[in-house]
Amino acid sequence: MDEVDHVANRVGLCTVTGFFGGAAYATFKGFPRRATALKAAASCALVATSLFGTERIANVALREYVIPKDDEQRLTMTSYAFSGVFGGGLNGYLYQKKPLRGMFYFVPLMLGAGILELEWNRRKRAKIEELQQQHIEEI
After folding, report:
1. What is the pLDDT of residues 22-33, one digit of tens each?
2. What three-state secondary structure class fits 75?
3. Which of 50, 73, 51 minimizes the C-alpha distance to 62?
4. Cα–chain-centroid distance for residue 127?
5. C-alpha angle 21/85/105, rounded to 5°?
6. Maximum Cα interatomic distance, the chain, rounded to a whole number of Å
7. How many CB atoms sit inside 10 A of residue 108's CB?
8. Neighbours of 137 (CB within 10 A)
9. What are the tens digits of pLDDT across the range 82-130?
10. CA-wise closest residue to 79 among 3, 1, 2
């Protein structure tokens, strides 16, 4: 169930970002705000689902069959690269009928997201260890 939550959090964030981005774009261009914002939100939700869904599928498959569980960095970066290739290719084909354009656009974007996730996890672990040390010192 954690895998579904992982995807849902990211898709929800992308949907909200798309909604507000679409509303801002519509306001700037003079388009109907509600319709434009909803279209942008739906588009962002579809793109995020294809990218983060394939990332989670790749992560689970790689973790179970290919990469050892203790190699978190390699697992994360490989699954995000897989997502950029396959999810980006799917989006490139659906939106422009050119899968290579989607791959070239989304692979660096997803690798950047993977780097951010690794850094987030590292900082979270460091903060937990710091709090545990403080708690031990207080006792």
Report:
1. 999 999 999 999
2. helix
3. 73
4. 23
5. 40
6. 63
7. 12
8. 7
9. 999 999 999 999 999 999 999 999 999 999 999 999 999 999 999 999 9
10. 3
